[in-house]
């Protein structure tokens, strides 16, 4: 969900009530609940957050807008991110000079080129950041940690 003040990322899992709120001015990230999302927010589906990047115009949020299932590992779906959107935290570009606007446009073009290259894979239930050998040699405590905590 997008408002002029915040981005709200809502999990679509059954029973999930938490919403990630990203302040577009302070860039502060907090957890809130669904009822805090204003009804006036523009809603669009995404499949994940790739990250943030700071360019000339300010900070941008990079989100995955399309995905394709490419396989499974131990019954865990593996997805390929196939399309992205780059969302500006800033509401306007009036604070930039013509040279800064041009530089920002070039950097956005470069970023779009990098994102168009194959190779962005993810899983919401399996740890793709560690090899199977390493995972086999980790402690039970590590195995029980969420993917985010790892």
TrEMBL record:
The chain crosses the membrane at residues 46-64. It comes from the Eukaryota. Its EC number is 3.1.3.64. Residues 47-140 form the SAC domain. It is an enzyme of class 3 (hydrolase). It catalyses: a 1,2-diacyl-sn-glycero-3-phospho-(1D-myo-inositol-3-phosphate) + H2O = a 1,2-diacyl-sn-glycero-3-phospho-(1D-myo-inositol) + phosphate; a 1,2-diacyl-sn-glycero-3-phospho-(1D-myo-inositol 4-phosphate) + H2O = a 1,2-diacyl-sn-glycero-3-phospho-(1D-myo-inositol) + phosphate. InterPro entries: SAC_dom. One of its GO terms (biological process) is phosphatidylinositol dephosphorylation. GO terms for molecular function: phosphatidylinositol-3-phosphate phosphatase activity; phosphatidylinositol-4-phosphate phosphatase activity. Keywords: Membrane, Transmembrane, Transmembrane helix. GO terms for cellular component: endoplasmic reticulum. This is Phosphatidylinositol-3-phosphatase SAC1. It comes from Bombycilla garrulus. The gene is Sacm1l_2.
């Amino acid at each position: 969900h997008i408002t002029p003040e915040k981005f709200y990322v809502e999990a679509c899992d059954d029973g999930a009530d938490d919403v990630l709120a990203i302040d577009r001015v302070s860039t502060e990230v907090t957890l809130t609940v669904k009822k805090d999302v204003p009804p006036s927010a523009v809603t669009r589906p995404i499949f994940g957050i790739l990250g943030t990047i700071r360019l000339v115009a300010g900070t941008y949020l990079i989100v995955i807008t399309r995905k394709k299932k490419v396989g499974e590992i131990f019954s865990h779906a593996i997805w390929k991110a196939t399309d992205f959107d780059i969302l500006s935290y800033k509401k306007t570009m009036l604070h930039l000079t013509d040279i800064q606007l041009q530089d920002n446009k070039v950097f956005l073009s470069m970023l779009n080129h990098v994102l168009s290259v194959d190779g962005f894979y993810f899983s919401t239930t399996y740890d793709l950041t560690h090899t199977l050998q390493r995972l086999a040699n980790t402690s039970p405590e590590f195995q029980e940690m969420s993917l985010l905590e790892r």
